[in-house]
Fold each of these.
Amino acid sequence: MSFIPLRAWEKTLICRHYDETYALLRQWHTLYEQADVGSVRAKCLLATQMKKLFPDYAFQKGFLYSRSGAALIEHYGANPHHIVKDGKDRFCRTMCQAVSRIRQNTLDRLYLQAESSTKTQQSFRLSEVMQCRLLQLWDDCQRYRDRKLEAKEQMEKLYQELRLMDPQLPRQEQGVISSFHLSRVVAETGPVSDFNTLRKFMRYAGLNLREKQSGTYRGKNKLSKKGRSLLRKVLSQIVLPLVKKKGLFGPYYHGKKEHGMSGTKAMTAVMRNFLKLFYGWYKSGGSFDQNRVFSCESQYRRAA
């Protein structure tokens, strides 16, 4: 057993005693988050370095992380001088051997952009130094990617262990939430059974509404944001695909916006609703029922 001190939903400091599996899950989630933050930073630096090395490169940012982009870096270091030095025919053959389905149009564009870059870029020797830095950043991106994959795999295994210990924990539901995102939520909440009311659960996440006041001043109701910030980040990532027009919360989210609510506030409302959904899902111990999401208990019973 291990314990983790925390600021509780009340105004006192308590300790929650965690089973080792919960403690391991939270630690792996911390490692995942650190790798994710490092990955974002490395990718930003890589994009900046790419503009220095290959000024006229004009593909979407995701291209570098495709098989074609990886081949460009592996064989040419994304250095336009090396591409032009090889000549167009040999460049096309090399890339086609590495990526059989790469389009000729893509190769033509890459070569033209490389030619243009070599005319405006500084010396070949300077490009070699910039290429060296780009390859270092590329290695950083791959390393962070591998760390994230390892953490994700471990978290999914631990969540399955927790489901054996507590069968009320939800199972993944296609189009709603994956087992990985379920593991992320539980990594931050800890045992959901510790929360005997939804209000306490909301306060732990910092998604409870609180009126700002000072003396006789009464402000607007706003989120307290005193709970776990990482849990709020995870929830925002979970609900993002669900607010598409055909998503689970699509009509709800777009209805809020049509009535004048800002996108940020509407997303927060969705996050609160999703956390409520998750809590009810856990407490029921049953399978996911989409008809229950936007119905109160009496309406649901009548429909049933």
Amino acid sequence: MDSAKYLDAIDSLCARDLTAADSEPDAYRSGPGYRIESLVVSHGMRDGDAAPRMAAVEDFYALRSRIAQQLDDRWGRQQPLWGMGTLKLRLDRGEDIPEPWLTTSIVTDDLDLWQPPGSPRWIALGVGHRDGTDEIHVLAVASDIDPV
């Protein structure tokens, strides 16, 4: 897996106009102020046997870690790993969680999170695997909406 192409995709997210949702095919989800893209998607892992799925999840976490290390080298480690437990609890209490943080709290366990120097934009990486009826994704998030 060539991490240079993933870094290029993240660079594109950093520069992208996020003022409106778009329907480009590489968007996992987008809306005003944010875009979530799948950097890598598994194939054949929906509703599959649990053991191969978990092995694939581990591989996707390893890839995310390699990409995150390269972003740390570029931007510095800015935030500790952000677990989604608090957002899930707040959602269960009926609080409104803005996108993209609502979606990421549902499909990921945690996110690596940066705010590139000189930019108001937030960039996050996560592994979307919580929905067993969906493929596994390494997700890149760009958001002009502060994490909650």
Amino acid sequence: MRRQARRTHLQTLSVVAVGGALGSCARYGAALIWPTGKAAFPWTTLGVNAVGCFIIGVFLVMITEAFTVHPLLRPFFGTGVLGGFTTFSTYCVDIERLVRADRAGLALTYLAATVVIALAAAKIGMVSTRRILATRGL
């Protein structure tokens, strides 16, 4: 029994690591495509976090209310891919960067806007997915 628990734990850690690497690469790619200046509003990070939160809202409704999925899908995609794609650390670095550039007001705006937009995006993803599923009888 202990060997099986260890194997399951290692499988979960492995899929989270692979998913996290994929999500982090996608976020890095977004930062390369849409770079942010030192004193500029971090639109890319805000957009990535909003998109990731919307997708997590859709994903969680799909796997908890509509479909039965492989047990490793949630840790791979939800924790790994989307956890690597969305970024609390870059969010914090962006706030610090704005404060150091004497843009404290913009930093506070970004701090609050990210929380509000991320929560709204997750809620919109959940509600819209439930509505779509309801119209399809799922």
